[in-house]
Design brief:
Layout (H helix, E strand, L loop, with lengths): L27 H27 L22 H43 L15 E2 L8 H5 L6 E5 L2 E2 L6 H10 L5 E7 L2 E7 L12
Antiparallel strand pairs: 1-2, 2-3, 2-4, 4-5
Helix pairs in contact: 1-2, 2-4
């Protein structure tokens, strides 16, 4: 039934995301800019959900019509429809940005790897060199995805998906890899008691915080 409100326009491309197209070679600054855009989208989505909460906590699925089939008088139906539509569009933008961020990190990591190889071009080959850990697991929550994978506190990360000591820069790199590997197998190597251990981690939602635990 038409509730008489203005029609919601189809999702339009966000102007600020025009730079979110994969590039042949992206700099770290490019990736950080995309991450800032991602944060802005997440903040905007949060604000829109607060709008829905202010409308009787109608959410994304609550009814907009009363029992007689008329637009509900206790909420601003157009505001709710507009907020829902905007959330859907922003979520699509968010997914596209996350793909671009992952592509950008891969590009940055590849550049770092090449720079590392050039800088370290000596008589000893990379295969002969022991791989160095780049981060330490501080704590593993019981029943978390990390716990299920067999990770333990004090494990030292040697590889985490595409991340190694050669391309790791900040914890943001880890967070992006985890987010983009949700519900997918992620190869992880750790140094434990002087021995190299390989495990398979599947980042996913669980009863605790985050996707890893």
């Amino acid at each position: 039934m038409d509730n008489g409100d203005k029609a919601i326009q189809p999702c339009a491309a966000r102007k600020e995301n025009s730079n979110a197209q994969p590039k042949p070679s992206m700099s770290r600054a490019d990736v950080m800019k995309l991450i800032r855009q991602k944060d802005e989208i997440e903040a905007e989505v949060k604000a829109l959900y607060e709008v829905l909460d202010s409308q009787g906590k109608v959410g994304m699925d609550g009814p907009l019509l009363d029992n007689d089939g008329y637009p509900r008088s206790d909420i601003d139906v157009y505001t709710v429809r507009h907020a829902r539509h905007k959330i859907i569009c922003l979520n699509n933008d968010h997914k596209a940005l996350m793909r671009c961020i992952e592509d950008g990190l891969t590009s940055v990591h590849e550049q770092a790897r090449e720079e590392y190889m050039e800088h370290d071009a000596q008589n000893v080959t990379d295969a002969q060199k022991p791989r160095q850990p780049f981060a330490k697991v501080q704590f593993v929550a019981t029943d978390s995805p990390a716990f299920a994978a067999g990770l333990q506190g004090d494990d030292r990360l040697v590889t985490f998906g595409s991340l190694t000591s050669a391309n790791f820069r900040t914890l943001t790199d880890l967070a992006v890899v985890v987010t983009n590997s949700e519900n997918r197998s992620l190869s992880v190597e750790v140094l434990r008691d002087g021995n190299l251990k390989r495990v398979t981690l599947v980042p996913k939602k669980w009863s605790g915080k985050g996707l890893v635990g």
